[in-house]
Fold this sequence. Notes:
Distance between the termini: 32 Å
Number of domains: 3
CATH superfamily of the largest domain: P-loop containing nucleotide triphosphate hydrolases
CATH architecture of the largest domain: 3-Layer(aba) Sandwich
Number of helices: 22
Oligomer: single chain
Strand content: 15-25%
Helix content: 25-40%
Structural class: alpha+beta
Amino acid sequence: MGLLDKIFNRNNDEEDVNDIEVGYQFGEGEDAIPSVTLSNVIGPSVITTNDNYRDVVLISDTVGHHTVWLPFFMTPTGYPHIFKPDMLDQVLANGFVNMHLAVNAFSTRESVKKFQDQEQNMMVDTITKSQQGQIAKVEANRRQMDEVTAHLRAADMQLNQLFEISLTGVITADSIREADMRAASIEGQFASVNGSIARFDQQALTGVKLALPLGYHEDNTEAWHTYREVSRSAVAMIDFARSGASVFNEGFPFIKNLSTPAKNIEYYNHAGTDIMPVDSYSMIVTGSTGGGKSFAVKVFLYRDILMTGNPKRGFDPDGEYISLAKALGKHGLNLTFDHDSPFVINVIEANITEIDIEELTGERDADGEPLETDALVNSLRSAGKKVVYRNNNYYVQRVSINEAIDMGVLVMNTFLTTLKQEPMNERENRLVLNIMRKLFEERGINSDPDSLYSGTPGTRNGLYYKSLPKDQPTLTDLFIKLNEEKGAERLVNTLAEFVSGIGTYTLFDGQTNYGNNISTKLEEFLYVNYDMSKLDGENTRLKFITMTLLGYQVSNSWMKAPNVADKIKLIMFEELTTFTTYEPIKDLAAYIAQRGRKYSAGGIYVTQDMSQFETDQKYISIKNNSYNYMFFKTQSTQAEIVQNLFNLSDGATRIISSTDTSIDTRSKDHAGLFIQGNQVTHGIVDATETEIKLFESNRKKRMEAKL
C-alpha cells in the first residue's frame, strides 16, 4: 500500500465507485499521471517527482490548468532566538502560503534524560574550551548551561517538558517559475527575522511526501532532519493552521482536527495576539451530561494554566473541578464551603484597584486645556495620589471604598431575598450605607492605598509584612452598629445567622484568613476552586448566598487587582443556568462578559441549557460579548437552539445533535465543535491517559484509561 493509499485508507484491491478520470501529459515521452479518486483531487490529488517538475504537487483546478505546490520546512538551526508568532502571521498574510507545525512530546523521564545529556555534553565542551583558552566560548557555554540546568530542574518537578517540533509549509503558485519567485520572497521574509527555511525539492534526503497532505507526517527516519527540540514554554508560543485557516497565535495544544486526514493537533488560544486581537476573552461551553463539556474545560484550564501561566478562578457548585485543583499541585487550591470550613473570607473588605491615566479627563491647565501626560502625572503625585508606570503606561491606584460600601448593601439584600423577604427599603439601604462608611472612617481607611496598612512591620499567618495590613470592617461590626439603631430589627435578625459566635454559617465574618503561610489574596495560586457541593438539600439557599458573595468578592479583589493586571484571567461558572432565578449572579456573569476585557479578564460559562440565551437579556449579553465557544453532544432541541443562536450550518448542527447517527465521530468521547470568532473546527479533545484518569467523571472511562 502506497503513501496516498495509507492517507486516504484506500485498498488497491477495491474499486471506488466515486473514481473520476484525471489525465495529464507532462512533456514529450512522459508517462501520464495515474487516474485518481475524487477525494484525491480534494485531498490534494497528484504527486510527481519527475525531472521536469521536481518535488512539487500538481492540483487539478480546471482542465489544462496546473496549480503548483512547493513545500518547505524551517531548518532546525533556522529558528530565530526569539520566536514571535506574528512572524508566522506576516508570512501567511502573503495569501499563497500555508504552514503546519508537527509537535511530538517526550515523557517526563525522557525530557529529564535529554536535559541531563545536554548538560553533560556542555560541561565536557566547556572544559575543553577552557583548556584551549577560548574564554568567550566558555562564558557562552556557562550561560547556556545555566539555562539547561533550569530546564532540567523544572522538568524534574514536572513543570517543564521537552518537545520536538517540525515547521513545514507549502507555497502555492500557477507555475514553477512563479513558485521559485515566491519561495525566494518567503526565504527573505524569514531571513529578516534571523530565520532560515529550506525547500524539500532541494533536499536529497526526502521529498514532498513528508509535507503533504498538509499536516500529514509519516513516522519514518527520513523526517529526522526537519525536527528541533524545544521546551514547553517555546511550544506554547505558537498556534498553527486552526480550522484550516492557518492562523498563528500564542496558545497550547488542545484538540485533534477531525476534518483533516492526519487528525493534526490544533493549538487553542482564547486571548488572541497584538496582530490578531480578539473581541472578548469569554467562552460559552454547552452539552448534555456525559457529552464531555466539563472534561474539555478541565483539560483546557489545566493546559492553559501550566503552559501560559495565566491564572483562573472557578465557581464549582457540584465539586466537579476539585480534581483539577489537586492535579495542579502547588499551583492549585480547593476551598470547600460548609458550616465547618476552616477559613474566613471577608466579603466587605476594601481592595486596591487601578485606572488608566488616560481615562482621567478632569485635570486641566490654566487655559482650560487637558493636561499633558507628564504634567498630569506630576499633578496627581503632588496631590498624594499613587501613580505607577507599567508597560509604557501610567496607572492611578486607589482603594475601592465605594465598592466595599456597596458590598454591605449587596450582602444584606442577598441574605434577605434568599429568605423570600423583600430587599431593603430606602431607609434601610441608606442606614447600611452610612454605617459602612463610618466603619471605614473609624479605621482611617480611605482611597489612599497606604491607608490599608498600619506602617508597622510584622508577621501574620506565617507571612512577613513590611507594613502589617489594618483590620477591616466585618459583618460583626455591621451587626453591632445595626443593633444600636431603632427600626433595624429585621436586618439584625437576618444578619445574625452569619455572625461569629451567634450564627451557624459564619465563614464570611472576620478578617480574611485561609490558613498559615497563605496570602489573603491567594495570589500564589494560579487556580482556586470554590467547591459548593456540600451546600445542597436544605443548604441550597446557602449555595446561592455563597455563589453571589464569592462572585463579587473575586471580581472586586482579584479580577481588578493591579498585581495580576497583565495576566489574562478567566472566571469559570459551572452550570451557570442553575442560578437563573437569582438576578445578582446573572448581573455579575454579564458584567464580566461585558467589562472583563478592561481588566484583561473574561468568563467561562458552562451550561446544559441554552434556552436562556434566546430570551434572557443578561444571557443574550453574555452571548454577544463572547468570542470562544465549545459545543458538545446535546439533545436535538438544544442543538437547534445552538444552531439558531450561532448560525451553524445543518452539517455542524448534526455533529452535536445526540439523535443524529449519520456522523461517525459522534461516538467519540469529548468530540464537538470548537469555535473562535467565525472559525469552526470539528475536533476532539486530545487528552492524555493521565488527563483522562485525573479529569474524567465517568468511572468506567477512568478505569479504561488505567488499563
